[in-house]
Records
---
Amino acid sequence: MKLKSAAIAGLWLALLLPLSSQGRTKPGLPDFLTAPAEKTGRKCVFFMFGHYDDDSVISGTINMFVREGFEVHSVYVTSAGMGNVLWGTTTSRKEEMQRAVDLEGVPRQNRHILDVPDRQAVRHLPEIMDQVTALVARYKPSLLITCAYEGGHWDHDASCLAGFVAAKRTGLDITRFEFPTYNAAGPKIQPYQMNHFIKSYGPTLYVIPDREAWKVRRQVRYAYQSQWFLMLPEGLIFAYRHLLGRGEPVRQTPDYNFLEPPHPGTEMVSRSVGALKGHPFSEWHDAVASLPEFAESKK
């Protein structure tokens, strides 16, 4: 009996110890995120989101930047909320965002909401590009962290596109990183992925929240009550990552071709699952091609 118990304990150790150390680094901001400020002397970082609740994915990192003395700005390319009481109105979701970002520590004057309706970013790309460029030119961040280009939601993708365009138009020395939301780039049998990058663009890096940042992460999820159907699986995913010694996924933004689909197969926005359904990629392509940065590449 003792031998059997010892064998079981040994098996668990063999399984869990490699997992718990895989990808582990010390808690806190990694050098690859603080290096842009050291290089440029501009200790300012922009986080750019499609919607109010998107910051929950990266809330621990936001909080650590604030506590490290960075000038942190949160930019939302839409005023989220479709007027549905069950899933949150524009007013209620904004109130949730203010509570969540209070927890993260970003000053209220550093929260910038563009006047674009929820789920309508693809129809307002010129205005989004102009407004984000104006903000970047004014505050001169050394680091932009945006949603990844995934085809999961045009509002998310617009934040990534705006980061690229703003850096190009201002000519500032800006490093761009990204975090994942959701996409349909997984295995054919189950393509839907949440908080996982499209693998073909390179490996995932992880920011390990310290004790205070983990506490903030939990509180931020609770603040977004109307988005419980996203906060619940996100909490489970990050609990698993915590067990693996990982944290919040980021990577340097790839050199995307925004006129091409982000991955082979059918994008999530063109499927029957997700906030946006049945939207052809041509909708995005034509909107991007109308921007001056892409005029020469228009097909």
---
Amino acid sequence: MKEKHHKNEDHKTDAFLRFSSKLVNQVIHNKKVILQVMAFVVLGSIGWLGYSLFQEKQETKATQALYHWESKIEKLQEKWSESKESSSSSKKEKAPKKKDNVAKLTKEQKFKKLSPLLEGFQSEILKHKKTKAAIYSAIQLANIYLTYEKPQKANEVLNVIKSSLAVSSKHPLYMFFYSMLGRVQTLNNNCQEAIQSYKHVDKQKVFSFLKPEILYRIGVCQYRLNQWEKALSTFKQIKEDYSQAFVSQEAKKYIRLIQLQKAKKEEGV
């Protein structure tokens, strides 16, 4: 019995050795191919890691460069804000008026003083346009331009970024970018383009909380393009599906306006 057991064990050992020998021979025979595959995997991993580190380095570099301009703009605006508060306090205390009172600067005068900084900021954004830091800065700069009623300037800086964006990207920052782009395009009377920008945001489920406002903006653009039926359908969707939203009341106004205009057209008025 013991002999039979030993024979079985020897048979298993021999089988294992034969398999091991065969495997070793296969490895030796295909050593070149296996080494190539291993090299590809290792280099691929190193490449991915290297690219990630490169991206991180680029983002850090962009953030530092852009913050240089951003901080200068903020400091100047804060100075104007403090001057305004100081002026208001001086009036109450009947203090003597200062020459060259900053608080008296008009919006256009402030914009002229800011312009060199804004242009420098925009130039820096262009240098780093493929980074997320630049996208964020472009949104900020566009908002500043809109504050000073310069929608064309805002459109210019956003278009610099748009050209480098991946259309399929679903990054939240990109969606905020497209929301701002749509707003700027609307102000520049580019409603057809604005609708496409808003649709980038509308189709992302993660931004469902923005759905009522985005639909409203699309509806306004459709109305401006005289696409009354489309606009009516959009505003009705807001009224029915988002009755509690703030824009629902505005949507109802547009519905009444479109219905009135359609009635007048049918009457030939």
